[in-house]
């Protein structure tokens, strides 16, 4: 898939070159599916593979978060590869283990502490290949750096991180030996004022949270089933593909709005999670009001590369579910 850049906000060439530059090592083998792609819906994956020459318009302003994330990862990797690493570790109080640390070793001797950075692996499943490149693994424990919003920590369940990390362990069981994952959050929208006002708000701009990975048997089953679903739908027309689920669409729940006065629909008396609950309230008011179903907005489509050819997206758009 190719990208056509637009510059709606007339960003300077000094910014535009940085934003348009993409040095990521994309796989040229069409049978390869990355770990991050595998987390997408079967429909999104298959439509993209059926339309490899599809072009997508991307505005430069929408690439800021992605490029900042890439720059952050590059900076972190350089810090571990720096000649000053022993000096840095000593300053942090780890001077006693400095000589034991080995970066990206091909062989290990007793007593060494291996640290692997940005290692890519590929494993064949059926007629396809799963590929993944993890951020860091320190002495068997996987770590992943995420530059993201506070919202992702407060309201996300971490399941996508767990799946992604579990795929990395499945790809590298000899390197990633622990069943726990450290997500190193670096917040892009952290507020010191909110931290002072709310003890449940992250108290620092960067923190680490631990998650438990799926067992190798569980993730092997999940990957096998997902690859099978992809292979089953690679050659079928879109109308025969399974539609993206509410979870895959990041869909908000449907709300049933109750209006006591049908002539005044500017504001509902109350919102209900189910139609039956709304009907009970309507009955309590003598059946004079009306109930309106409002389907929840979906958020994933704006990040999808195939919305331009997706019929489900057009349907959601016509229903007013895409902001």
How are the secondary structure elements laid out?
Layout: E1 2-6, H1 13-20, E2 32-34, H2 35-38, H3 42-50, E3 55-59, H4 64-81, H5 85-91, E4 101-103, E5 113-117, E6 120-125, E7 128-133, E8 136-138, E9 141-148, H6 150-155, H7 159-171, E10 180-187, H8 192-197, E11 206-212, H9 216-233, E12 255-259, E13 270-272, H10 275-284, E14 290-294, H11 311-318
Parallel strand pairs: 1-3, 2-7, 4-5, 9-10
Antiparallel strand pairs: 5-8, 6-7, 8-9, 10-11, 12-13, 12-14
Helix pairs in contact: 3-9, 7-9
Number of helices: 11
Distance between the termini: 25 Å
Strand count, sense and barrel status of the largest sheet are: 6 strands, mixed
Structural class: alpha/beta
Listing every helix as H and every strand as E from the N terminus to the C terminus, the arrangement reads EHEHHEHHEEEEEEHHEHEHEEHEH
How would you state the average pLDDT, rounded?
A: 92
What's the CATH topology name of the largest domain? Lambda Exonuclease, Chain A
Radius of gyration: 24 Å
- Helical content, roughly? 25-40%
Question: How many structural domains can be distinguished in the coordinates?
Answer: 2
The tally of beta strands, per DSSP, is 14
Query: Biggest sheet: strands side by side, in what order?
Result: 4-5-8-9-10-11
Ranges where pLDDT stays below 50 over 5 or more residues in a row are none
């Amino acid at each position: 898939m190719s990208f056509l850049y637009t510059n709606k906000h007339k960003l300077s060439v000094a910014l535009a070159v940085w934003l348009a530059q993409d040095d990521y090592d994309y796989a040229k083998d069409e049978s390869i599916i990355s770990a991050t792609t595998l987390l997408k819906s079967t429909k999104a994956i298959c439509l993209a593979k059926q339309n490899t020459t599809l072009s997508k318009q991307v505005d430069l302003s929408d690439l800021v978060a992605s490029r900042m994330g890439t720059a952050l990862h590059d900076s972190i990797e350089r810090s571990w590869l720096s000649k000053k690493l022993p000096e840095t570790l000593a300053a942090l109080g780890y001077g006693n283990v400095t000589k034991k640390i080995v970066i990206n070793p091909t062989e290990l001797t007793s007593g060494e502490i291996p640290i692997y950075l940005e290692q890519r692996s590929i494993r064949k499943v059926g007629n396809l290949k799963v590929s993944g490149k993890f951020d860091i693994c320190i002495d068997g424990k996987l770590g992943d750096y995420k530059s993201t919003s506070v919202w992702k920590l407060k309201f996300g369940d971490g399941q996508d991180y767990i799946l992604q990390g579990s795929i990395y362990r499945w790809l590298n069981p000899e390197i990633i030996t622990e069943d726990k994952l450290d997500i190193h959050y670096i917040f892009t929208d952290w507020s010191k004022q909110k931290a002072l006002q709310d003890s449940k708000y992250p108290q620092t701009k960067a923190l680490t949270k631990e998650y438990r990975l799926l067992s190798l048997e569980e993730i092997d089953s999940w990957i096998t089933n997902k690859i099978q679903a992809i292979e089953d739908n690679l050659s079928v027309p879109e109308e025969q593909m399974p539609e993206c689920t509410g979870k895959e669409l990041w869909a908000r729940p449907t709300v049933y709005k109750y209006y006591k006065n049908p002539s005044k629909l500017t504001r509902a008396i109350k919102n209900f999670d189910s139609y039956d609950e709304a009907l009970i309230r309507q009955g309590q008011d003598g059946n004079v009001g009306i109930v309106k179903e409002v389907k929840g907005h979906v958020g994933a489509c704006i990040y999808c590369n195939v919305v331009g050819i997706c019929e489900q997206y057009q349907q959601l758009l016509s229903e007013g579910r895409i902001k």
